[in-house]
Amino acid sequence: MFWAWLIATVFSGIPSTAYALLTDADPMEATWAAGGMLLSMSAPPVQLFMAAGVAHGTVSAFWTLVFSRLLPRRHVLPWALAGSAAVALLDLRLIAPPLFPSVAALAFWPQFADHLMWGALLGGTLRWRLARASRRGAPPADAPT
Question: Transmembrane segments in this chain: where (predicted)?
Answer without folding.
Answer: 44-65, 77-96, 108-126
